Amino acid sequence: MNIFKQTYMSSTVSDSRVEEILARKRSGQRLSEEDAVTLFEHASLEALSKIAIEEKRLKSGDGVFYNRNFHIEPTNICRYNCRFCSYRRSVSDPDGWLLTLPQIEKIVSRYMDSGITEVHLVGGVHPSSTLEGYLDIVRLVRRMMPHASIKAFSAIEHIYLFDKAGISYDEGIARFKEAGMDTLTGGGAEIFDDGIRKRICPDKPNAEQWLALHKAAHNAGIKTNATMLYGHIEEYRHRVSHMERLRRLQDETGGFNAFIPLKYRCANNSMSQIGECPMSEDLRTLAISRLYLDNIPHIKAYWPMYGQQATKEALFYGADDIDGTVADTTKIYSMAGVEQPSLSLAELRKMVSDAGFTPLERDTFYNVVSK
Ligand code: V47
Ligand code: SF4
């Protein structure tokens, strides 16, 4: 059954059950997995919005964060073949790219002296990539932008490089830290459930490996983000068990800064025929992640993925971050069919203030950047 048709099937019994769950949440109790699935299936968007904003205000008041960042995508050539990916190319494909260090240097030089506080590095897993090559990229960015934070690569890239070099995750993370990495992206988490993972990204590292890599980073004092790709073939219970595994690791390490639900976008990939979920699913997912992930401080509505109008709406469902000036420096979403205008800082701020919140420029670690 298509999960989007599960919503609102029986209203009377479920209304009182939803009210009881929300009352327990308001009294400070944690949601169980069963509670969260019930909210996905039966809670109204109005009720979710109200409580998600309450929870958000407890964490970040009226503020909504944004930052000044740009992306570098060293390659779109990838040894994996995720079915949802519109971005990856094979080694022989004429549309594939692999940037050299001088090309990366040229990109970075465009952003020097621009007030950028974060450089976001991510890409495909080129079969010839090596640990030393990736460390060289981080060292180069660190040398050129000594004051910016470097958010370097996804767990999937790290795992490939460390396995290939025959070193442990702890040792690999220590090498990146020494080179100048400050934090990791949350990419590659997709949906942790093994069965769904086998169907959408069969050859990629699994949930245990993703979680172990982030745990190694947290143990080394490196904060990270976590994502979840939703709106494809998963069911609500898969979204909830994904969040449960993140919540458990967060209880242990406290190392996640932000959770970023990523809506599956359907253009130009081999799952295109399933289409995209409606916006109500985006709002529901944001709100329930705000409620369920009570120990992750920030929920990010990533504007290059939602677009401006939906991002404003997302702020009424518990998000307190919209990411940054990234714009046309990432190809992941434009290749999946999302129109991506370049937004100035003023436009980012306006998106937040139009929704009635206070725009706050942050650094990577959510310190407010003073003007
Ligand atoms: O892991 C790929 C997703 C991720 C599609 O850490 C798709 O601050 C939707 O991780 N439709 C990479 N999503 C991007 C990422 C990210 C983005 C923004 C901020 C941060 C952060 C991290 O993009 C992949 C995958 O889950 N993705 N293809 C698609 N067709
Ligand atoms: Fe490769 Fe990442 Fe695309 Fe998967 S999502 S095919 S790992 S670039």
Blueprint of the fold:
Layout lengths: L11 H15 L6 H10 L2 H16 L2 E5 L1 E4 L28 H11 L6 E4 L9 H14 L4 E4 L2 H11 L3 H11 L14 H7 L6 H13 L4 E7 L5 H18 L2 E8 L15 H14 L5 E2 L3 H4 L1 H7 L6 E4 L20 H10 L3 E4 L10
Parallel strand pairs: 1-8, 1-9, 2-3, 3-4, 5-6, 6-7
Helix pairs in contact: 1-2, 2-10, 3-11, 4-5, 5-7, 6-7, 6-9, 7-9, 9-10
The structure holds ligand V47 and iron/sulfur cluster (SF4).
Ligand V47 binds next to strand 5 and strand 6.
Outline:
With 371 residues, the chain is an alpha/beta fold. The protein contains 14 helices and nine strands.
Structure description:
- The chain has 371 residues and is an alpha/beta fold.
- It has 14 helices and nine strands.
- Strands 8-1-9 form a three-stranded parallel beta sheet, with helices on one face.
- Helix 3 (45-60) crosses helix 11 (279-292), helix 6 (155-165) crosses helix 7 and helix 6 packs across helix 9.
- The chain is globular.
- Ligand V47 binds at residues 84-86, 154, 185-188, 190, 225, 227, 229, 260, 262, 264-265, 269, 302, 323, 332, 336.
